[in-house]
Amino acid sequence: MKLRFTGIATLLLMTALVMAACGSEDSSTDTFIGLAADETQAPVVRTGETFTVDQFEAAGFKLSKEFDTDTVPLAENVYYGFSERRDIEIRKYANHTDANSAGVESALAAIGRPVNSNAGGGIITSTGNRTSYHAYMVAGNMVLLCQTDISACENLVNAIP
Known about the structure:
Blueprint: H1 2-22, E1 44-45, H2 53-58, E2 62-67, E3 77-83, E4 86-92, H3 96-111, E5 135-139, E6 142-146, H4 151-158
Parallel strand pairs: 1-5
Antiparallel strand pairs: 2-3, 3-4, 4-6, 5-6
């Protein structure tokens, strides 16, 4: 009996140590997958290129809807769709400088937003929930918001010749 108690106590102590080392997660906050440790840096690729949504569609982006740009400063277009069964929002800017400044600020606000927020960004699903974005990246003049992690966005950009 004492051996069994010792085993359970050891297991509980190890679990507590692992949780303390990793920190606790609050289910109301989003996890930023694909961002740097400071959660303000994301991949910035192909800085000298100017992309169109047609190039993304040819690479596999399934365009579903275009949004008004009123709530996205300096954006010329905001496209919602999906790739690899993940929601993606593509924000088009006039140039890389705008994408890397106003676009990044806007992306950071969007990925930090709770799922049911009324503060724009993300499409409202048939269940009344807003799509939640957990990561973003900058590709040339575009900012891509990625649903669960950055992989689908990276794959999309990499598929553009």
